[in-house]
Amino acid sequence: MTLRKNEDQAFVGGTQGTNCASTLRGAAHAxxxxxxxxxxxxxxxxxxxxSGEQVWGARGGPYLFVRQERREGP
Length: 74
Fold this sequence. Notes:
0% of the residues lie in helices and 45% in strands. It has strands at 2-5, 11-14, 29-36, 40-48, 54-57, 63-66.
């Protein structure tokens, strides 16, 4: 996985092409994409069969992890 800092100061990247081999649930390769911003992280992981059909992973867009304020207390 390769990440690069873009002009918006976000780190963006992922796997390259079909280079990430996978056998999970009938996949031939996996694709991962990630964006790391100051207030959130977006990740998209998918597996594809040799035919190009998606066999696992998110279908509606990336998972979104939003930064929460730290809470003080017990």
